[in-house]
Specification:
Shape: elongated
Number of strands: 0
Helix content: over 70%
Structural class: mainly alpha
Largest sheet: none
Distance between the termini: 26 Å
Order of helices and strands: HHHHH
Number of helices: 5
């Protein structure tokens, strides 16, 4: 009986969705609405669509290491987007109601918010596909089936 363990490939462990979220936020802050305001459709073409395709390749792999890393990367993605949204909301509140700028905040235009929302939906879809794979694994081990 051959029981050698195979390590999952780096492609399956790499956080494509998290990388896209960090790139969207980083480019938004670096370019400061100079380039993104005119070419915001490039966000979808260059960052969202490849992330969705590359994350979709992972569907169906149900090793524990891959599933654990999917959960960790999804949680980090939600944390980063939540912090960016909180900073943008704080900046909007200070500008609207207090007429001061207390600290540095992130400016998130509607197209960046839409891109982040779509990337988070991809992460949620990945989590549900992982749960489906776990259910399939448990159903195969069930002696009553």
């Amino acid at each position: 009986m051959n029981t050698e363990s195979h390590k999952p490939s780096t492609f399956l462990l790499f956080p494509w969705g998290l990388l896209s979220i960090v790139l969207v936020l980083g480019l938004n802050m670096a370019l400061n609405n100079e380039w993104f305001s005119n070419n915001w459709s490039w966000i979808a073409l260059v960052l969202i669509i490849p992330a969705a395709i590359l994350e979709n390749f992972k569907v169906g792999y149900s090793t524990m290491r891959i599933m654990f890393m999917k959960v960790v990367y999804s949680l980090v993605s939600f944390l980063i987007v939540g912090m960016a949204f909180g900073s943008a909301l704080t900046g909007w509140y200070n500008a609207k109601f207090e007429s001061t700028t207390v600290g540095k905040t992130i400016n998130l235009p509607w197209y960046v918010l839409l891109a982040l929302f779509v990337l988070l939906l991809i992460q949620v879809a990945q989590l549900f596909s992982m749960l489906k794979a776990v259910k399939r694994e448990f159903m195969q081990l069930d002696p009553d089936n």
